[in-house]
């Protein structure tokens, strides 16, 4: 029915049975709608695994549509939505497995608490007396066999040994039925528990029944759920490990970059200090050079003055005396203006 319905939906559309009035308010459903089952889109829906079993989850409340699943697989957003749907499915499956494991633990406890088969009950008085008589006869016959053997009477000893074997068979017959009954009772109570689906099984059951259980819906369904959880966890751990390695690699790259930057700055600072040191050295050298030049010029000036020293002094002294007389003559003239003017008039 589901296959036929899907075929009709594909040919005629999901709204094929709606009236004209209903079609007016009808909205086409897309794969990313909340009403669509994301579990069915990405992997499997657990509601489909346990139909008509003791673990039946009932029908899924969301839409399962092969056409929508095909649209999802062809969508360019497929890879972006797969991790989201898988994470939701893993969460749902983990809850199922947790409930199942709880049932398995209870089953183990129940099996452990089962009473072990009781020891065989004691024989009745009559059988005990018969058993004692037989054991006494067997003992006497064995003693006779030993004596006959020492006397070399082999044929008689062998005849007595056959009687001993018959008595041992009678002794076994007294106890064997009771032991068989206890053994059968123990085998009936010996059960086993399936660790995959939590079902109780008869230990050492026939191969056909065991195979029927292994291929049953419940066992196969829980096997798929457990396999998916293990696969999801492995992929997640691998992704986390790759992310951790990537972060470590990036951290290492940043550390190397910081070291390179630090080394570059150190070299730059060293170069700056070297340039400043060279500038200071050049300034100091220029300062000493200027000082030496000043000293040299001063020394040359003193040497020239020394060479011209005698002549210059006599000249200044003579000039000084002549200058004094000239100054005296000028003062004398200025003090007798009348005399000079009388002479000029005569």
Automatic annotation (TrEMBL):
Residues 236-333 have a biased composition (Basic and acidic residues). This is Luc7-like protein 3. Belongs to the Luc7 family. It comes from the Eukaryota. Keywords: Coiled coil. Pfam families: LUC7 (PF03194). Residues 236-346 are annotated as: Disordered. Residues 334-346 have a biased composition (Basic residues). Residues 124-151 form a coiled coil.
């Amino acid at each position: 029915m589901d296959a036929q319905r899907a075929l009709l939906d594909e040919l005629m559309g999901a709204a094929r049975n709606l009236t004209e009035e209903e079609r007016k308010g009808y909205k086409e459903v897309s794969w990313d709608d909340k009403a669509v089952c994301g579990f069915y889109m990405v992997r499997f829906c657990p509601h489909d695994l346990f139909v008509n079993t003791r673990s039946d989850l009932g029908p899924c409340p969301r839409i399962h549509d092969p056409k929508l699943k095909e649209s999802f697989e062809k969508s360019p957003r497929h890879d972006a939505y797969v991790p989201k749907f898988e994470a939701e499915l893993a969460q749902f499956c983990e809850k199922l497995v947790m409930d199942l494991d709880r049932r398995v633990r209870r089953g183990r406890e129940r099996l452990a608490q089962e009473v072990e088969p009781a020891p065989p009950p004691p024989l009745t008085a009559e059988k005990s007396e018969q058993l004692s008589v037989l054991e006494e006869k067997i003992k006497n016959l064995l003693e006779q066999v030993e004596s006959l053997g020492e006397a070399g009477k082999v044929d008689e000893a062998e005849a007595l040994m056959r009687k001993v074997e018959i008595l041992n068979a009678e002794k076994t017959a007294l106890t064997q039925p009771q032991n068989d009954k206890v053994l059968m009772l123990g085998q009936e109570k010996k059960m086993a528990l399936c660790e995959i689906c939590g079902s109780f099984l008869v230990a050492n059951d026939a191969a056909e029944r065991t195979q029927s259980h292994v291929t049953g819906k419940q066992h196969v369904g829980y096997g798929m759920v457990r396999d998916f959880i293990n696969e999801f966890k492995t992929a997640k751990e691998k992704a986390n490990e790759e992310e951790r390695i990537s972060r470590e690699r990036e951290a290492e790259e940043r550390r190397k970059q910081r070291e390179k930057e630090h080394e570059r700055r150190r070299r730059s600072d060293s170069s700056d200090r070297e340039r400043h040191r060279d500038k200071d050295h050049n300034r100091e050298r220029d300062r000493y050079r200027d000082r030496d030049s000043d000293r040299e010029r001063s020394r040359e000036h003193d040497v020239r003055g020394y060479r011209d020293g005698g002549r210059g002094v006599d000249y200044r002294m003579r000039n000084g005396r002549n200058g004094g007389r000239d100054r005296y003559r000028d003062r004398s003239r200025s003090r007798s203006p009348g005399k000079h003017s009388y002479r000029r008039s005569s």
